[in-house]
User: Fold these one by one.
Assistant:
Number 1:
Amino acid sequence: MIQYETANSPFFEANKEYCETIEGQLRTMDIACSGFCNSFGYDIEATLERDDLTYYLKFHKHQSTQNGVVIPVDAINYAGTKIEVSGLNKKFSLTAGKSNLKRLFTSKHFRDKIPAPYFVMCNYSPDSKFVDLLVKQILNYKISELTVHSGSAKGKMHIAITNSLDLITDIERTMKALV
């Protein structure tokens, strides 16, 4: 259940609407979520267990301000989503993200399909179906960091996901292709 710190603010109303949308989407899959929502942001956490895999999702938004000494500084808004999946095959290792330097070491079959500055490095040679699926997910969800190591996957997206059901379905499809 999400705790709401009610305020008479358009920022709170926008955050509350987002939280209620995500909570409603998760409820349709019988996924309980918890967290908080106020005028400055929200934190929503959800866990799903399916097919021997455990999925943890965290939807996060916060606003921070800085004091401008000479020039006023606007507030900094951050919205993002974190994903973690555990129970994967421990033999696989994969790292993806944004780095022009690491892109130099990306294999040709990834480099031909994913634009700069993205890179993908792994300890095996994946089939083209998995490469296409992974590249599609990285670009669609603007994944800035993805690490698969020791049977778990962790990813970070610097966008507010509007459809959590599509996200879960796409993560499951990608993880099943990896396993």
Number 2:
Amino acid sequence: MDNFAASDQFIKSLLFAFLFSAVLIALLQLTNLIEPDHLVGREGVAWLIAMAVCGIEPVLRHYGILKGSIESRVAELTKASVLGRVIGAPAGCLFAWAITIVGS
């Protein structure tokens, strides 16, 4: 395995989680299911759900509950993937929330 595999996995996971959570929160805000003014209420719960959904998948693949490639069983790549997703998901949520606040 090359030296950049873990950092590549981190960047890919960060970007995936950022885009996934930003689109999810933006759609929920556009359909008025959550209000950007009430950050602690439904918006905070949606952020936690986005983080959990993004972060749990690599862990499930690592333990063999979900099928994955052999790279998903390498502990370093699993750590990089989970860390990237746990950082990227709230960043995407914050981005979608800030765009909504600035746009209104």
